[in-house]
Amino acid sequence: MKRQFFYFFLASYFVSAVGSSAYATEKVILLGDDDYAPYSYVENGQFKGMYVELLHKASELLKPAYEVELKPRPWKRGLADLESGASFALFPPGFKKERTYISTYSVVLYTETVVLFCNPDVMAAPRKKFPDDFTGLTIGVNAGFLLSSRLIDAAKAGKITLSEAKGNEANIKKLAAKRIACYATDRGAAFYTTKKLQADPDLNNFKLQEALELSGEETFIGYSVNNNPAYKADFIMKMNAAIETIKKNGSAAKIESSYLK
Fold it and tell me: Alpha-carbon Rg of the chain, whole angstroms?
């Protein structure tokens, strides 16, 4: 009798354990760039930005199965964590075939417009054809960002020199000080940051001058090839569906317009 009771208790315990784990909430961490205003950035200790809000909104639709936490990281460190498998996912990389450590990309978050901005001295001469009209110039880029194949190909061919700095603010200050001839970045990010820096005496009366548009760049959540929890495929499928839902119901458009008026 005692033995029967013991086996009944043991069976009940395992059924309970399996049942509770089947309905347990999975906690998932997505890393995001900490210095890419207005898309994702830290301000006064708070992680904010257009992508942050979009993913917060999408993540609400994943509950109770998934509890998603968005954490800021310096971009190059975020890429390194993705490559090593220390992190599960990172936003918002563009699709680059050389990043073989990204196993899967989400559905498109947004399409950024990569533009070349140049200082007034450079713009004094007509420059309409890239890269021929920009040969010999130093062009600033954000550290870790592979923005445009046209830009990368020109650098590999030795026609231009790329100079990295951390984030929009550092590069715009370099452009204003004429330490770089031009700066390649997203149009929205550049204008947002320049407006924010207007009170800086070093940027007094500085205005962005757009030379030309380089490319349209789709952005995604990138998932590490070296981090493979059991829920990975299910999470990616559900997060993709959630992103598509907030696009269709107009929530994404409202968030985008609040940052990119």
Answer: 23
Cα 214 to the center of its chain, rounded Å = 19
Residue 36 contacts residue 74 (beta carbons within 8 Å): no
- Whether the CB-CB separation of 39 and 189 falls below 8 Å is answered with yes
Which residues, other chains included, contact 156 with Cβ-Cβ below 8 Å and sequence gap of 6+? none
Per-residue pLDDT for the chain (261 aa), expressed as one digit of tens each? 444 444 444 344 433 443 434 558 999 999 999 988 899 999 999 999 999 999 999 999 999 999 999 999 999 999 999 999 999 999 999 998 889 999 999 999 999 999 999 999 999 988 989 999 999 999 999 987 766 788 989 999 999 999 999 888 999 999 999 999 999 999 999 998 998 888 888 787 888 999 999 989 899 999 999 999 999 999 999 999 999 999 999 999 999 999 887
Report phi then psi at 74, rounded to 5: -55, 140
